[in-house]
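Q: Two folds, back to back.
A: First:
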Amino acid sequence: MTPATTGTDGQFDPRLPAAPDTIAVYTDLNCSFAHVAVHRLHETRRRLGLEGRLWFDLRAFPLELFNREVNARPGVDSEISVLGALEPGAGWRLWQGPDWAYPVTTLPALEAVHAAKAQGWHASEQLDRALRRAFWAENRCISQRHVILDVAAETGAVDVAALAEAFDSGTARPAIMAQYESARDGRVDCSPHLFLHDGTDSANPGITAHWVNGGFGVGYPVIDEDRPEVYDKLLTHAATLL
């Protein structure tokens, strides 16, 4: 499932999905904008009757590596009421656990999502979506191995023993780092950023925002524009490539 396709200039482009039935989705698990995007991708695919025809290749855009620091809880908390109002059905709740239980890294969970791809796109998609809900709606520490495996078991779509074996062997870490490298130097704008097989891409689809009274972790976001219909256009176009 390693992408091996070319861009419009004929050169190898690791950001693009390997097959036309797949959409590459660069995200982090503790990014609120990505939580909205992934929810909309799943709901739009279902509504358009494209389940089983289009798949989502969830790629790592690890904010902690780009920013060289933990994705700060004050910034994450400040986004919940704003982004939650756009898609309340995605599942949101302010962190209710103790401060020391707050996830300090998403790299293990990102590795698990990639490792699940060995079981098929469906398994990986379901684990990714369940981990997002575990963090955003259930306040679970998705940095921890046992939490990741518990969430995997709850999906009913993942072979947990096989996932644990792959996860413990570390076989997914090189892929996560390769995805990070493919996104660096402005090649991927943000979490989320979508890429189709033909080179079509969309960063934070349909949403533009700015920060007031300081940046992330200090101020709060204001949504300037929200056009969820962009997802219909993206998935409809992806379906024409099949």
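A: Second:
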Amino acid sequence: MLSTISAKQAVAILAFLAASVHGHVVMTEPVPFTYPDPNNQQAPLSDSGSDFPCKFQAGITPQTVKVTALQPTGNKLKLKGGATHGGGSCQISLTQDKLPTKDSQWEVIKSIEGGCPSDAPGNLSDNAEEPLPEIEYSIPEGTAAGEYTLAWTWFNKIGNREMYMNCAPVSVGGGAAKREVAKISKKRQSGLPVMFTANIGNGCSTNEGDDVTFPDPGADVVKGSQATPGEPVGSCGAAGAPSADTASTSTPASGSDSGADQAPAPATTSAATPAPQAPAPQAPAPQAPAPAAVAGGAACSPEGMYVCAADGASFTRCASGVMSAPIPIAAGMKCTPGSDASNLQMAAVKRAASFGA
């Protein structure tokens, strides 16, 4: 049986479709790469993933208009377009590749879950030039100076299940000296998370009506005040694991440094001289209880809690009151069971060394 709609509903649907076609959201600052056909820049990625990343389609070479210089703090990401699709969730990521490929390593520096790029229901307008709220972001401490590619990725709340991605050439200046990088990296023991991808034929998708919650949003995450959070669907766990490149700069967790494997030499005393008396043992300082293991899908608290598996090969995260499925750790790394719930600690897996006679 065919259903009927009122004239008012028909007008609303046509307005939505018009905005979807002509008012797609696009990044304007940092200044993105340009394409021979501007529609390539505004449209979502192909659902097959053929133009991932950055809508770099085969046979099309994007052009650099300007390399935007980024500051340690106070950077502004600017967007325009009225087809905001009810908002959604978005991320800002960096890669060291000047012309990214499917093999590029993207590291998230900011996540917004809900209300990105707007919390207006439906589409904001059909105006492709509609200015949208600016997103302020910082460059993580310890990022080396040099040229990068910045990506803004967006997962819309309503409409087709899509992934939008705009990319821009950027430069980072005033980075720490090489001798200081190891010291600074101690503040980033978990590394920066890998950029989340979905709806591009990779086995991971988002639900319509949800503001997707990222498997690992990173340290700089903003929650929308009117968000309707929802977990992604499918094989999405690995997308939240720390990247191998960044995690390799992490320092071992407390008590697991390279000197911990060597026992101190026993003290010796002369028979003629009485051995000094050892000081009275002191009670150990109280420690915060380690988070208890929680199975994937079980209710959990507090929000954002990390729990490392006993073998250190995976971890789970409390998101929207439910524990995620186990997320594997990057090769060559392991997490520390019993680490603080709000700061998952990572360490490189020690390799046994052999020496000749």
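Q: And?
A: The chain has a mean pLDDT of 75.
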